[in-house]
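C-alpha cells as discussed.
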C-alpha cells in the first residue's frame, strides 16, 4: 500500500479527489496484481480494484485487504461510473496517454463529472526503483547474460537469423524468463545495418556481423542487452566500427550518474562519433529506462533536460550502421548511483568476438 499512499499524497497536493488508473503496468505497480483486464479507482476514502470474474480469486490472493474488489457485470467503465455515483465523487483524474480518443470520450460521458488528465504521475514514481525492483531486474539480467554465453555456441554459418532468435527465446524461458519484453532482434551481414530489423530467414554466412538485441522478464521486470559478434573474420571496416561503438558505449556507462542531465550524457556518448564524422550513422536514441515496461522514461536524448536520479536503471546503447556493409550496436543495463554507477549486464564486449568456424 506504500505506493498507493504515495499517489494519494500526490493527488492531495494537486487537489485531485479521485483517480482512475487503467494502464495495466501502473495497476500492477500500485497494487501488485499480476493479471490482466483490471483498473483502480483511488480516493482518500477508499481504493477500488475493478476486474471481471476471471480474475476475482487471483485478486483476493494478491491484493491487500484494504483494497475493495469489484467484479464488473456490464463493462469496466460502466462499473467505474457506478462507483463514482455511489460514492459522490465530484472530480476524477485519468490516464489520457493510455486511453484512445474514443475511450477517453466514452469515459467522460459515462462518469458525467469533472475530469482531469493526470498523465505521468505514476510513471514518475516508477522511474526510480526500490530494492525489490532492483533485485528483480538483476534476475532478468542474469538470464540474458547466461543466454548470451549459450548462444555463442549455437551461432554458425548455415543457420538462419530466425533459428538464432528462436533458440535465444527458448533458452531464456528454460532458465526462468516469463516472456520476451520486446521482439528479439537478430540481424546479420548487411542486415546488421538495420537498427531494429526483425529476425528473418536470412542464412548467416562466414564473415557476417551478427547483432543480437534481446531481453528477459523476471516477475514483471525486464532486462535489455545488445551484443554484436562476428562469424569468422569480418570486413576490417566493421572491426574498426566495433571499436568506435565500444568507445562510445564505455564513455556512456562510465559517465552516467545521479544529477547528470540527459542531453549531457547523450553528448558524451556521441562524442567519438562526432570526432570521426560518423554521428549521422547513429540514427536512434542512446538509451532508455527499463522496468515493468522495456522502454520507460527517462530517455537519453540531446533534447532532454531531465536529470538522472539514483536507482534509475538505464540502458546505454550506441550503434553505427553502414548500409550495404553492416552495423554494430552494444547495449548494457546500468543502475544509476550518486558517483560510480553500476553496470548490471556482464556479457563480454571488450574485444569483438570472432566465432570460430570449422570446416
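Sequence:
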Amino acid at each position: 500500500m506504500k505506493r498507493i499512499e504515495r499517489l494519494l499524497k500526490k493527488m492531495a497536493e494537486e487537489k485531485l479527489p479521485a483517480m482512475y488508473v487503467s494502464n495495466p503496468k501502473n495497476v500492477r505497480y500500485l497494487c501488485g496484481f499480476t493479471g490482466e483486464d483490471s483498473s483502480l479507482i483511488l480516493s482518500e476514502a477508499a481504493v477500488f480494484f475493478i476486474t471481471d470474474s476471471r480474475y476475482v480469486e487471483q485478486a483476493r490472493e494478491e491484493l491487500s485487504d484494504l483494497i475493495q474488489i469489484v467484479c464488473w457485470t456490464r463493462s469496466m467503465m460502466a462499473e467505474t461510473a457506478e462507483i463514482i455515483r455511489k460514492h459522490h465523487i465530484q472530480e476524477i483524474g485519468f490516464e489520457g496517454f493510455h486511453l484512445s480518443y474514443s475511450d477517453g470520450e466514452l469515459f467522460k460521458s459515462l462518469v458525467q463529472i469533472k475530469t482531469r488528465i493526470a498523465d505521468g504521475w505514476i510513471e514518475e514514481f516508477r522511474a526510480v526503483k526500490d530494492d525489490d525492483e532492483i533485485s528483480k531486474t538483476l534476475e532478468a539480467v542474469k538470464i540474458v547474460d547466461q543466454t548470451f554465453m549459450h548462444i555463442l555456441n549455437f551461432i554458425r554459418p548455415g543457420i538462419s537469423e530466425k533459428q538464432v532468435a528462436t533458440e535465444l527465446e527458448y533458452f531464456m524461458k528454460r532458465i526462468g524468463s516469463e516472456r520476451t519484453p520486446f521482439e528479439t532482434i537478430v540481424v546479420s551481414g548487411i542486415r546488421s545495418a538495420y537498427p531494429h530489423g526483425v529476425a528473418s530467414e536470412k542464412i548467416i554466412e562466414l564473415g557476417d556481423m551478427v547483432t543480437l538485441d534481446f531481453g528477459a522478464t523476471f516477475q514483471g521486470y525486464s532486462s535489455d542487452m545488445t551484443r554484436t559478434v562476428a562469424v569468422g573474420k569480418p570486413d576490417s571496416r566493421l572491426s574498426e566500427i566495433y571499436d568506435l561503438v565500444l568507445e562510445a558505449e564505455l564513455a556512456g556507462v562510465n559517465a552516467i550518474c545521479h544529477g547528470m542531465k540527459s542531453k549531457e550524457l547523450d553528448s558524451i556518448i556521441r562524442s567519438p562519433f562526432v570526432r570521426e564524422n560518423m554521428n549521422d550513422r547513429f540514427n536512434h536514441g542512446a538509451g532508455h529506462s527499463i522496468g515493468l515496461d522495456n522502454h520507460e522514461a527517462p530517455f537519453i536524448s540531446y533534447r532532454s533536460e531531465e536529470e538522472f536520479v539514483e536507482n534509475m536503471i538505464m540502458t546505454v546503447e550506441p550503434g553505427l550502421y553502414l548500409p550495404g556493409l553492416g552495423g554494430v550496436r552494444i547495449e548494457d543495463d546500468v543502475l544509476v548511483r550518486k558517483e560510480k554507477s553500476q553496470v548490471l549486464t556482464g556479457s563480454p564486449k571488450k574485444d569483438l568476438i570472432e566465432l570460430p568456424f570449422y570446416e
